[in-house]
């Protein structure tokens, strides 16, 4: 008759551990009389003492036998191991194989965890998935040929897409949501912006489907407006779209009159527009714009050197994203405008916003100035400042086109200039894909003098209406 094991206690376990540590024995097995088949194995190894629980059941006529691990000691206490061993004994008594039951339970838990993770992925907000797509697209080089590609995508998401779709689960974005987006602030009436936003949503949803965040194989936002549902829902907005074309530009012959009226306005927006015209700069080099990394753009006093007569734009302030940035030459007219501006302690921006402390003026401020000027002219029965070719009100960016047109006329009035240096006045680089890579020699002092001569002649024409060959 086999001897029944004593009921195992924590004190008995501690004593056995002490025996093993004293190197009296290399291994020891402790059975538990309260839960037959429960064994605590103690073993001394290279890593020190190892203690783990095992449930062992011998083979019988009705049971094939089993050996199941219950975990290490003391992570699994005596009470926990005993409870599990009694559960296994009860299963065997009921004709259940405990190993198969345990494997089945583990499989069910794994499947439940997988479904929960899948559900969590499907419930991910669109804005979070869009950010993951941005990082993936950036890493794959999607924006490699466009220095402002990522910033533009982040801007479209922040301004247009996320206010409508951002908080919705990406798996629930459907055609109805896309229609709602297109109607948001009449987005569908702005052809290029609407198409760009739709392409962004299309790419995010495609990426989400591939990476398991959507279970809907059909993309809810087709890149083409040929989709019947979108075409029908957005028909009214499409009719509002202005004719496609370039930014409406002011004819050069109208610039002196435009500047004369502009200079009568004593507002920050008017001064900023005048400075933009005199320097041929881009709006986002002067106005407030938030980048995806939290950087705020805007013309700062630290970028201006009135002594040398230069405006240095750091890398992020330029469209071309040259590491060295870009230096623009300031004409005497541009410097006079800057010197007339008030400067406040602790205010870094040249054209600071009155509404948002610590920010430069917004991107829409200059456009508002032009619209205000045209309203005043309309009340007086005067001709509006419009692009005669498009019959549309001029916009700030069109002033750069005005400068290009003026250059052609100025050449007929005695102004001789290097076309490449004239392009640099606009912060343009060589048009071919190799020129930008090989044209690294930098600008000489003579080149800077030539650029200053161009800007001085342009400033004189804007402010005085005189061509280079006029006294």
UniProtKB/TrEMBL annotation:
What domain of life does the UniProt record list for this protein's source?
Answer: Bacteria
| GO BP term (any one) | DNA integration
Q: Which family does it belong to?
A: Belongs to the 'phage' integrase family.
Q: Where is the Integrase DNA-binding domain?
A: 8-102
Q: Which residues form the Phage integrase central domain?
A: 126-216
Checking Gene3D superfamilies in the record gives:
1.10.150.130, Integrase, DNA-binding domain, Intergrase catalytic core
- Molecular function in Gene Ontology: DNA binding
User: Where is the stretch described as Disordered?
Assistant: 100-120
Q: What is this protein called?
A: DUF4102 domain-containing protein
Record key words, sorted:
DNA integration, DNA recombination, DNA-binding
Entry-linked InterPro entries: DNA_brk_join_enz (IPR011010), Integrase-like_cat_sf (IPR013762), Integrase_DNA-bd_sf (IPR038488), Integrase_DNA_bind_dom (IPR025166), Integrase_recombinase_N (IPR010998), Phage_int_M (IPR053876), Phage_Integrase (IPR050808)
What is the source species?
A: Sutterella seckii
């Amino acid at each position: 008759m086999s001897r029944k094991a004593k009921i195992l206690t924590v004190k008995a376990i501690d004593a056995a551990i002490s025996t093993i540590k004293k190197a009296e024995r290399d291994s020891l097995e402790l059975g538990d009389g309260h839960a037959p088949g429960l064994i605590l194995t103690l073993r001394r190894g290279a890593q020190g003492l190892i203690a783990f629980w095992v449930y062992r059941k011998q083979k019988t006529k009705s049971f094939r036998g089993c050996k199941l691990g219950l975990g290490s000691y003391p992570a699994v206490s005596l009470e926990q191991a005993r409870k599990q061993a009694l559960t296994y004994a009860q299963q065997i008594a009921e004709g259940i194989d405990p190993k198969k039951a345990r494997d089945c339970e583990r499989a069910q838990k794994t499947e439940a965890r997988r479904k929960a993770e899948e559900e969590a992925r499907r419930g991910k907000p669109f804005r979070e998935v869009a950010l993951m797509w941005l990082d993936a697209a950036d890493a794959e080089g999607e924006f490699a040929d466009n220095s402002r590609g990522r910033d533009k995508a982040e801007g479209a998401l922040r301004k247009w897409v996320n206010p409508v779709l951002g908080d919705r689960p990406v798996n629930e974005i459907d055609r109805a949501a896309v229609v709602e987006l297109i109607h948001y602030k009449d987005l569908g009436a702005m052809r290029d912006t609407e198409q760009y936003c739709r392409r962004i949503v299309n790419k995010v949803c495609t990426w989400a489907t591939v990476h398991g965040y959507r279970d809907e194989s059909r993309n809810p936002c087709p890149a083409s407006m040929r989709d019947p549902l979108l075409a029908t829902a957005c028909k009214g907005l499409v009719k509002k779209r202005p004719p496609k074309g370039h930014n409406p530009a002011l004819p050069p012959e109208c610039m002196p009159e435009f500047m004369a009226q502009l200079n009568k306005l004593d507002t920050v927006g008017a001064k900023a527009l005048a400075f933009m015209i005199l320097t041929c700069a881009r709006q986002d080099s002067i106005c407030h714009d938030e980048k995806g990394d939290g950087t705020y753009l805007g013309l700062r006093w630290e970028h201006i050197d009135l002594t040398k007569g230069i405006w240095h734009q750091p890398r992020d302030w330029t469209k071309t994203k040259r590491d060295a940035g870009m230096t623009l030459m300031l004409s005497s007219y541009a410097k006079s405008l800057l010197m007339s501006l008030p400067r406040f302690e602790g205010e870094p921006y040249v054209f600071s916003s009155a509404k948002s402390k610590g920010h430069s003026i917004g991107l829409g401020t200059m456009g508002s100035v032009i619209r205000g000027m045209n309203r005043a002219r309309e009340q007086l029965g005067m001709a509006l400042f419009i692009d005669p070719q498009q019959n549309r009100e001029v916009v700030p960016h069109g002033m750069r086109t005005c400068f290009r047109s003026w250059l052609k006329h100025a050449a007929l009035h005695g102004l001789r200039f290097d076309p490449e240096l004239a392009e640099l006045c606009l912060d343009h680089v060589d048009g071919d894909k190799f020129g930008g890579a090989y044209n690294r020699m930098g600008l000489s002092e003579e080149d800077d003098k030539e650029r200053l001569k161009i800007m001085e002649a342009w400033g004189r024409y804007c402010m005085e209406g005189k061509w280079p060959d006029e006294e």
